[in-house]
Amino acid sequence: MTGGGMERTHARSGHLPVMYRQVLEGLRVHGNGAYLDGTFGRGGHARGVLSQLQAGGRLLVMDKDPEAIAVAESEFGGDPRVSIYRGSFADLAQWDATAAGLDGVLLDLGVSSPQLDVAERGFSFGKDGPLDMRMDPDNGLSAAQWLAKAGEKEIADVLWTYGEERQSRKIARTIVARRDGQPLTRTAQLADLIASVMPRGDQKIHPATRSFQAIRIFINRELADLELGLDAALARLKPGGRLAVISFHSLEDRIVKQFILRHSKAPPANRRMPVEIDFTPTLLAIDGAQKAEWEETADNPRARSAVLRVAEKLGEPGIGNRESGIGTAKAAAAFDAPAALLSRFPIPDSRFPAPPPGGAK
């Protein structure tokens, strides 16, 4: 549902869920199924799923953000079909409510519109507020705390890795040089500092865009959590269950695309290895990369960069990619152990660095 119809449906929350119609079609909701929304936000997609569930259906909602959880509890807390969990979707397999298996998992990645719109959350360079950027404000270092302690190389690496910011070294050098005289505590301070060192010329985006994105992703360990969450979702999905992921930039989408590809297609043949690798696909890609319709982007400009990918879990229970172990009965059982996710993806060895000790969890 797009345009005016979607606005009427979600007038209560004031939030327009991105690619609403495509997401519900991709999840292929059936009345007695069990579905998990790992990024509840303000509940736009969750309401759509719940509207299609019968008395025997289940909706599990998760979010790091206490404000999102408060909305979920206020609106859905009395519905026996709904269970609510505060935490990262990286931990979804540790939630007992998922142990019986899921018919669908939705991940709507990145920062939510309400988080961007509230200056006090510290996500936006367009609204002056405390330099925080934590999706869970009760855990980990804020952006201000990290920038006050991090070394020049670490800051530059984060800006380049997560923001692909070409001026990362220059920005990092300036942050370190100025922070002793005037600590960075406000979003406007950081945005002005970045703008002051960027080359002059035509800029299609604000000069602080990539740096704010990079710091936010790092502080909230978004890409490391995405790797964990995708793996956990596949372990908990039932055969025939659907995974739907909305990404908003190329770093996220690349991870999702490669994950689906890795579990749906055999690796390319290697002429130096004549022995055929035993491979059983565990996912089927559905419709490739989908973009928001033009009517939606006209009403909601933030939908322009959204990419939806959907995949369906294949096979009988216990059958999967034997090389990785994903989808096997043994692998599924392993996710019942609280330490399973972290032991399989130790953060120091991840492609994506995590915040230092005391950082976002």
Q: Could you list the spans in which at least 5 consecutive residues all have pLDDT below 50?
A: 1-14, 317-350, 356-361
Strand content: 5-15%
End-to-end separation: 35 Å
N-to-C order of helices and strands: HHEHEHEEHHHHHHHEHEHEHH
CATH topology title of the largest domain: Rossmann fold
Spatial strand sequence of the major β-sheet: 3-2-1-4-5-7-6
What is Rg?
21 Å
Name of the CATH first level of the largest domain: Alpha Beta
Helix content: 25-40%
What's the CATH architecture name of the largest domain? 3-Layer(aba) Sandwich
Instruction: Please tell me the total number of domains.
Output: 2
For the sheet with most strands, the description reads: 7 strands, mixed
What's the tally of helices? 15
Key descriptive features of the protein:
disordered N terminus, Rossmann fold, 361 residues, 7 strands, DNA polymerase, domain 1, seven-stranded mixed β-sheet, alpha/beta
